[in-house]
Amino acid sequence: MPSIYDVKPGELISKAAEQLKKDIKMPPWSLFVKTSCGKQNPPEDTDWYYKRAASILRKVYMRGPIGTNKLRVLYGTKKNRGHAREEYREGAGKIIRSILQQLEKAGYVKKEKKGAHAGRIITPKGKSFLDKVIPHHESRKPGRAAQPAPKPAAETTSAPQAS
Prior knowledge:
- Helices cover 36% and strands 11% of the residues.
- It contains five helices and four strands, in the order H-H-H-E-E-H-E-E-H.
- The strands form two sheets. Strands 1-2 form a two-stranded antiparallel sheet. Strands 3-4 form a two-stranded antiparallel ribbon.
- The longest helix is centred in the middle third of the chain and has 16 residues, at 48-63.
C-alpha cells in the first residue's frame, strides 16, 4: 500500500479536498478574500478553500508540529511591484487559522508541544483519513513480478562458405 510520501501531492490534495467538503465548511468571506497581500485578486477556483485545507492537512502530517507562522511562510508569494524589484510576502494568516481551527474541530489535527516546537500535529483520525484518500493505481498488481520481454531469436542465415 503506498504511503503519503509515494504519491504525487496534487493527486492527494485534490482527492482529499473532495472528501473534506463533508467535514469543513467554506466561510462566506472566502469568496472575496485574497490568499496573500502579494496577490492582486482572489483565487478563481471556487473550491480553493478545500484544496488549501487539504494542503495544510498534508503539511501538518509531514512537518508537524507546525504553527500558523510557518504555514504563512510556506504559502507566501512574491509581490509584483511594477518596475521595482519583487518582494516576498507571507500568506494570509486568517485563512490558515480558520482552516486549522476547522480541522481541529473535525478531529484531524490537535495542538501539541514537542520540546521547543509548538503547533498542530496530525491525529490518528487525520492519518487514517489521508491514508484512505491516497489514489491507488491498478497498473501494478500485487504478486505479479515484472517479467522481462522475450529476446528476439537470432537470425540464422546460411551464407555460402568459401573452401
